[in-house]
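[job 4471] stage=fold_predict status=RUNNING
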Amino acid sequence: MARLYLDYNASTPIDPKVIDVMRPLLVSAYGNPSSGHWAAAPAKAALDTARARIAALLGCAANEIVFTSGGSEANNLALKGLCSTPHDRPAHIVTSVIEHPATLEPCQYLTRLGVAVTYVPVDGAGLVDPDDVRRAIRPGTRLVSVMHANNEVGTIQPIAEIAQIAHEHGIRFHTDAAQSVGKIDTRVDELGADMLSVAGHKLYAPKGIGVLYVRRGLTIEPLVHGAGHEGGRRAGTESAVLAAGLGKACEIAQAWIGTSGIQKLRDLLWDRLQAAFGNQVALNGHPTRRLPNTLNVAFVGRIGADILAGMPDVAASTGSACHAGQVTLSPVLQAMNVAPEVGMGAIRFSLGRQSTQDEVDEVVSQLRRALV
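[job 4471] inference complete, writing structure tokens
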């Protein structure tokens, strides 16, 4: 039986064209890109090209790109970096209850340092109400951070509207775009983002590389202090090889945004599941404002982890976790007020560029057998 990979939101395979760009740099780009001699030139050129390619995808200037080790570091740098700068009053952050742990955990850390955090709710589809953000703003609010698209259910937030509210109050806006970059438009001016996080391995680039876009004129305190790399925003000698991989992945992604092939496969999978299981299967997340590759479904009255255990050749994710014999609903589904008997049976199928109709047909067949 063929193995089926339907977990592209967790990680993507490296695009072969990305590997082709990286391979020669393993030999030629060994110099320190900050040095001024001949050995530094290939690494410096690779970094410059990568920055330009990433900036083209995001619609920003190349010097607004800060390389990081991934999306988690980018989120940490955005939140801690902005809230660690000197200010005339204690900082306050507004974020949502369904953020990735790479946002929620830094917020919890900052509260121990005296930063206040307000977590706005979401509705049953996983959407933030911009008016809730407006009501949460208060004197001292320094940052609003709301993810562009949720990693579990794929719901796309009204980012531009939320950013406008923040800016009306003179507040900076950050969005975690790890799941959306390369799938939908993420041009920073259209979104109104002052900072935006990118994770390479969600984008057919290697693990260990990411980006924080930082709007020109915005000062953040680096997490890593040392020499003045990345415009003084992140110390440490850059990896030209990894940066080049991400740059090429961003260049490739521009051709995929707006195409409908993956979404058609996702919708086909949903249609096949409804035909096979009827009212025994439910959709989690917004029916239309959703990432084109993401389908989070719940098999009512079942346990998602048990279903996947019966399909060992299918790689997908569940919306529940089992600890010491107790099954718990994911925090995202809890925040959406999904009933336990529904949410416990949640499985996230996330498709990618290599997904095929044959895989869709096969996973439905395996689900039929597993749910007998």
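[job 4471] summary: The mean pLDDT is 95.
[job 4471] exit 0
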